[in-house]
Recover the amino acids of this structure.
């Protein structure tokens, strides 16, 4: 089984801790842990499972940041899913030993929080167990183990005039598929004509379309990695160059603050 996960994982680099934390500094590991503790312990969201779709700094007002007369409270904005609902919370983590949920609301408007990697992994496994999809792959003379599907779009179809509006405000996503054998560049080999619609909440295929059979582009000539494509990309390396700033870099980095 081959799964294509399209989410981008932001890995924070090792950023040197500053002796003077700035009010707009991102949440620290200890603050993030405190947010998790407070939200899981909150009686406001008893339903389980509870998944965190966004946790970030709840930025203080600009005027307060500029004046910096007092040390500002540290707060997090949280978007979570539980019990089939989207929850928004503000959590005070000024003291990470006693975090407090300050505000909570259930979101009833348009849209859903972005998918988690766990959502995408579970969705990517569904097509292989969906007989119409397996048949579509077979009809194209392909091996199902060479095909991978991924969640491409955000999946809000509620309210509009479109055909998709029949999915209403369900938490659904369209999936598209690619042939990944023989190339690192699977985007160049789409399985044209095939679209699956997945209800992420129920983790089930709820819509399927195989509207046209087109040839899958060949794998040859799709290589893009410089070390694999051959000359001129694999020739001798260019001579090294040197950039000199005799008076220094002209800026200073202190924690997350950059000053000139
Ligand atoms: C932080 O919270 C803990 C636990 O409630 C408490 O013992 C401690 O005094 C608090 N620290 C400050 C600076 O308020």
């Amino acid at each position: 089984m081959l799964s294509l996960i399209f989410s981008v994982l932001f890995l924070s680099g090792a950023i040197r801790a500053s002796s003077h934390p700035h009010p707009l500094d991102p949440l620290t590991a200890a603050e993030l842990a405190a947010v998790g503790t407070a939200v899981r312990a909150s009686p406001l969201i008893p339903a389980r499972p509870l998944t965190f779709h966004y946790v970030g700094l709840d930025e203080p007002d600009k005027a307060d940041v500029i004046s910096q007369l007092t040390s500002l409270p540290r707060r997090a904005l949280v978007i979570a899913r539980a019990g089939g609902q989207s929850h928004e919370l503000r959590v005070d983590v000024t003291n990470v030993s006693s975090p407090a949920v300050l505000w909570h609301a259930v979101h009833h408007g348009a849209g859903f929080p972005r998918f988690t990697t766990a959502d995408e992994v579970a969705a990517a496994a569904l097509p292989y167990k969906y007989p119409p999809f397996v048949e579509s792959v077979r009809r194209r003379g392909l091996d199902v183990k060479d095909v991978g599907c991924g969640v491409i779009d955000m999946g809000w179809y509620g309210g509009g005039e479109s055909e998709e509006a029949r999915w209403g405000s369900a938490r659904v996503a369209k999936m598209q598929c690619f042939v990944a054998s023989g190339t690192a560049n699977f985007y160049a080999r789409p399985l044209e004509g095939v679209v699956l619609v997945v209800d992420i909440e129920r983790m089930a295929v709820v819509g399927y379309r195989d509207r046209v059979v087109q040839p899958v582009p060949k794998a040859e000539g799709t290589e893009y990695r410089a070390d694999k494509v051959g000359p001129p990309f694999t020739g001798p390396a260019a001579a090294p160059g040197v950039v000199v700033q005799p008076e220094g870099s002209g800026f200073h980095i202190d924690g997350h603050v950059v000053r000139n």
In short: The pocket of 2-acetamido-2-deoxy-beta-D-glucopyranose is lined by residues 95, 97-98 (CB under 6 Å). The chain has five helices and ten strands. The chain has a mean pLDDT of 87. The two ends are 52 Å apart (CA to CA).
